[in-house]
Design brief:
Distance between the termini: 37 Å
Family: Belongs to the ABC transporter superfamily.
InterPro entries: AAA+_ATPase, ABC1_TM_dom, ABC1_TM_sf, ABC_transporter-like_ATP-bd, ABC_transporter-like_CS, ABC_transporter_sub-D, P-loop_NTPase, Sigma_54_int_dom_ATP-bd_1
Largest sheet: 7 strands, mixed
CATH architecture of the largest domain: Up-down Bundle
Protein name: ABC transporter ATP-binding protein HI0036
Number of helices: 20
Membrane topology: Multi-pass membrane protein
Strand content: 5-15%
Keywords: ATP-binding, Membrane, Nucleotide-binding, Plasmid, Transmembrane, Transmembrane helix, Transport
Shape: elongated
Number of domains: 2
CATH class of the largest domain: Mainly Alpha
CATH topology of the largest domain: ABC transporter transmembrane region fold
Radius of gyration: 36 Å
Length: 666
């Protein structure tokens, strides 16, 4: 139910009952700070430069929300886990150094043919390996725990903002880069939170490893003396200089070769999201497609969308090939370079075999640390693209949230009626998010128990007006006022059927066990769905199984269970035949005699079930209310015909004009 005063809604414009907070309500306290201020690009920038500035800001916007995980209101285990991970990284580097020293000792012992030391070092090696394995395993477990908890925290925060105040619906009404929000929240946000933890852990590990083993290289390698044209040149710390130069060459090569990686990766992710959306759209509309025989057209659309996926994958594959060329070549040369550099000193006897092997091991570790960018550039680019996509969604939500807190665009006010009126529209104007008027200056007062039909040609703003009344459309001017503590229930043209059992579908948006089976069966009986009573507990794809008419009947059963004060029917009987439609309306009036009804419909037959009719007319500058008349209740046409025939039989001969009271039947 919507509490007309609080106006908190779920998918069908309803508010779940119960004292316990829902997960979304609990999560809504995660991110309580206002959205960031709008940063307008410099007007002197070219469109291309302005777009680049916007893309750079997207990463900033992502971190504005993401870093709150470690702040006030964040996860209580965020800092303990992070500090623990850094500690394990430091300990692991210590084990790496121990194994490096072990390499030198074992090869020196082998060179000296010292069996006792070889056996001793062989025994020492097992604890070193076990210790390193345990630390690395614990490091992986803690790193993945941070990733899991961070993703959970940020996903909960984004979903809470997405669902708040109907923003998930309003995103469909505004412009912006927020297509496929479900893919952004599920897939892009996962990568956006997993990758940074890996990156930070990798950078810290690389820094500690490089710092430790550069000292080892400097100590072991010493200076290299070269004779060039009868003159000698001494190069201090030649192994360190070589490692730095080698890493600089490979890293710069990777940056140059993969400079388009971010853009290509982002385009690939967008193409994948659009392909998923197209497949989902076909599945959700399978019945209509099958009835119309639209398989060939859908196949063409899917082929076109998938062709774009393959095209983006081909571009990404080229980028991977280029970066692999650099990374693979680097990994093959790295172990050989230090051995070749140390060979002259070993051959002349100034370095032992153990020192050569220790230098080779240290050089590989330093090169791996310096080459972190080489190994992770593709994933860094993928993270960049995903972070920007989720940030684009955040910015669209920011805009909606700012609009809720500002009167710059105009917001429809919501309050309480005065007197006995159950609903009043006071100078209500409904507009788009850009200020374009849809409905202008509507003044309506509805009393309890009235049944009001909203009429008008297609495109005159009837459904928009109804959505403004229900609180789904925020932009405009004037006010929508409800009687205090009245509950509103909305029946859209396409009722929402959740996954799960039929019992859950009928009870939605309350829990499936909110009513007994007998009450649910009784509601189904009244709407003509008694043949489904045996399947109430059956878990099936009811959204695909039920016909359009059955879904609308189920929505009326849902209505009976919730027993609201105000009902908004938006073409809620369009899938029913005339007789079924009349039965539904008669049933509602009989079962809920005091309910207030606001209907949007095109069928003239529905006038018989309403006491009042307001008509909207589309005009330049926005639709306006052009008439508000009381309707005289009329009986069914066939009943009137029978009465006319009876009157004819009762008239004296020669008089064929019955004396019918009331206005003529249209």
């Amino acid at each position: 139910m919507i509490d007309a005063k609080s106006n908190q809604k779920s998918v069908d414009g309803t508010k779940p009952h119960g004292a316990a907070k829902s997960r979304q309500e609990e999560a809504s306290t995660v991110e309580v700070v206002p959205p960031p201020n709008v940063i307008e690009p410099d007007p002197e920038l070219t469109p291309e430069e302005a777009e680049q500035a916007r893309r750079r800001y997207l990463l900033t916007r992502f971190w504005i929300s993401a870093r709150r995980y470690w702040g006030r209101g964040g996860d209580r285990l965020a800092w303990p886990c992070s500090i623990g991970l850094l500690t394990l990284i430091g300990i692991n580097v210590g084990f790496q150094y121990g194994i490096n020293v072990w390499n030198r000792a074992i090869f020196d012992a082998i060179e000296q043919h010292n069996a006792r030391i070889v056996y001793f070092l062989s025994a020492v090696f097992l604890p070193l390996v076990l210790g390193s394995v345990v630390i690395v395993t614990a490091q992986v477990a803690l790193r993945m725990m941070i990733q899991r908890r961070w993703r959970s925290w940020l996903t909960t925060a984004v979903i809470a903002r997405w669902l708040a105040n109907g923003r998930y619906y309003q995103l469909n009404l505004i412009g912006g880069d927020h297509k496929n929000p479900e893919a952004r929240i599920s897939e892009d946000l996962r990568i956006a939170t997993e990758a940074p933890v890996d990156f930070i852990a990798g950078v810290i590990s690389a820094f500690l490893s490089a710092s430790t083993f550069i000292v080892v290289l400097w100590t072991i390698g010493g200076a290299l003396t070269l004779t060039i044209a009868s003159s000698t040149v001494t190069v201090p710390g030649f192994l360190v200089i070589t490692a730095v130069l080698y890493a600089a060459i490979t890293s710069s090569s990777m940056v140059v070769i993969g400079r388009h990686f971010v853009h290509v990766s982002e385009a690939k992710n967008q193409a994948e999201a659009e392909f998923r959306y197209t497949l989902t759209h076909v599945r959700e509309n399978g019945e209509s497609i099958a009835l119309l025989g639209g398989e060939e057209e859908e196949r063409n659309d899917l082929d076109k969308t998938f062709a774009n996926v393959l095209r983006q994958w081909a571009l990404l594959a080229r980028q991977h090939m280029r970066t692999t060329l650099v990374s693979q070549g680097s990994s093959l040369f790295a172990p050989v370079v230090p051995v070749l550099l140390c060979a002259p000193k070993f051959l002349e006897g100034s370095m032992t075999l153990g020192q050569v092997m220790q230098a080779a091991s240290a050089f590989a570790i330093v090169q791996s640390a310096f080459g972190w960018l080489v190994d992770n550039y593709p994933r860094l680019a993928d993270w960049n693209a995903c972070a920007r996509r989720i940030a684009s969604l955040m910015m669209s939500l920011d805009g909606l949230e700012r609009a809720e807190q500002s009167n710059a665009l105009g917001r429809i006010k919501r309050g309480e009626t005065e007197g006995d009126a159950i609903l009043s529209l006071n100078d209500l104007s409904v507009s788009l998010d850009d200020g374009t008027a849809v409905v202008k200056e509507t003044q309506v007062v509805i009393e309890p128990g009235e049944r009001v039909l909203v009429a008008g040609e297609s495109g005159s703003g009837k459904s928009t007006l109804v959505r403004a009344i229900a609180g789904l459309w925020p932009w405009g001017d004037g006010s929508v006022n409800f009687h205090a503590d009245r509950r509103l229930f909305m029946l859209p043209q396409r009722p929402y059927i959740p996954s799960g059992t039929l019992r859950r579908a009928v009870a939605y948006p309350r829990a499936a066990d909110s009513w007994t089976l007998d009450k649910i069966k009784a509601a189904l009986d009244k709407v003509g769905l008694d043949y489904l009573n045996d399947k109430i507990e059956e878990d099936a794809p009811w959204d695909q199984t039920l016909s359009g008419g059955e879904k609308q009947r189920l929505a009326f059963a849902r209505l009976l269970l919730h027993n609201p004060d105000i009902i908004v029917l938006d073409e809620a009987t369009s899938a029913l035949d005339e007789k079924s439609q009349d039965n539904m309306m008669e049933m509602v009036i009989h079962e809920l005699p005091n309910v207030t009804i606001i209907s949007v419909a095109h069928r003239a037959e529905l006038e018989a079930f309403h006491s009042r009719k307001i008509t909207l007319e589309r005009r330049e500058g926005g639709a306006k209310l052009v008439s508000d008349i009381d309707l005289v209740q009329r009986k069914r046409k066939r009943n009137l015909l029978l009465r006319l025939l009876e009157d004819r039989r009762s008239l004296p001969k020669g008089n064929t004009t019955p004396n019918c009271a009331g206005p003529p039947v249209p």
